[in-house]
Design brief:
With 294 residues, the protein is of the alpha/beta class. It contains six helices and four strands.
């Protein structure tokens, strides 16, 4: 059985851990609130921009653009969004497991290159020997719109130079504080499913527009904005899901520490009481022995 000194040390250590997990939970909650506000403000604009792009592409079949045309698939890139830090539950393990599963299912279709975002993803795919096209770390804690622009610029450069023929993005989509969903989105070329007119037509009555200067001019100006904003939305989704997972994990850790403290305190009190009782018995026995001797 552990001594009183050992139990006191364990209690002190767990109390320190409990303070840390409480502080991390509060920090994650503050970041989550900020990211939630940003993502809720971003989603409607992103959907509306997608609707405008859908209308442009479906009103005429003569519009062409390099980001729309499907070409033979030789090399594809998978962008994997993880976090730079741990202590966020199953957030990283879930996304990495999904990425490995995706790689196993699609590696026979074409040469598959990995673009990890986040230190946890970079470390995993580097150690496991995957072919990494490029990587990004330490952007989530100071996430800004220019990060999305930088990533898109690089992806577009790879795509236009035909280094890669397709880009998919795998990330955790924020649903609620206790639920995140792994999503795979085709980023380049534009997926015919994403740009399907059916869902858009059900909500919007058919209307004919006059475009100035031209449809292709508007399309050329809109596509870079669309790509940048979609990447910004995806980064925000992943960052929000990460903070939600970290807040939940730290809350569970704090509750576990509290329960363990209660158990250790009870054990300490029992051991202390047993020690006091033993000392009293020794004093009484000694007193009785002295009486008999006297």
């Amino acid at each position: 059985m552990a001594t009183l000194r050992e139990i006191r040390r364990r209690i002190a250590g767990i109390k320190s851990t409990e303070k840390i997990t409480k502080a991390m939970k509060m920090v994650a909650a503050a970041k989550l609130r900020r990211f939630q506000e940003a993502i809720f403000a971003t989603r409607p604009y992103a959907k509306r921009m997608q609707g405008v792009l859908t209308r442009l592409l479906n009103e005429t079949s003569t519009l062409t653009h390099p980001f729309i045309e499907q070409r033979p698939l030789r090399r594809a890139a998978l962008v994997v969004l993880a976090s730079d830090r741990g202590l966020c539950g199953a957030f990283n393990s879930t996304i990495i497991r999904a990425a490995v599963d995706y790689y196993q299912r699609h590696s026979n279709d074409a040469e598959l290159l990995i673009i990890p975002i986040g230190k946890k993803a970079v470390d995993f795919f580097t150690k496991q020997g995957y072919t990494i096209l490029s990587s990004y770390t330490h952007i989530v804690d100071s996430l800004q719109f220019h990060h999305a622009q930088r990533i898109v610029d690089e992806l577009v450069s790879y795509y236009t130079k035909e280094t890669i023929d397709r880009v998919d993005i795998l990330y955790n989509e924020f649903k609620s504080v206790i639920q995140q969903q792994v999503v795979v989105e085709q980023f380049l070329p534009f997926s015919t499913t994403i740009l399907s007119q059916q869902a858009y037509a059900r909500k919007t009555p058919p209307t004919h527009y006059i475009y100035e200067p031209s449809q292709i001019g508007i399309l050329t100006a809109l596509i870079p904005r669309y790509l940048n904003y979609q990447m910004w939305r995806i980064l925000l989704e992943s960052a929000t899901a990460e903070q939600a997972a970290r807040m939940t994990a730290m809350n569970n850790a704090t509750e576990n520490a509290t329960e363990l403290l209660e158990e250790l305190t009870l054990t300490y009190n029992k051991a202390r009481q047993a020690g006091i009782t033993k000392e009293l018995l020794e004093i009484v026995s000694g007193a009785e022995a002295l009486k008999k001797a006297g």
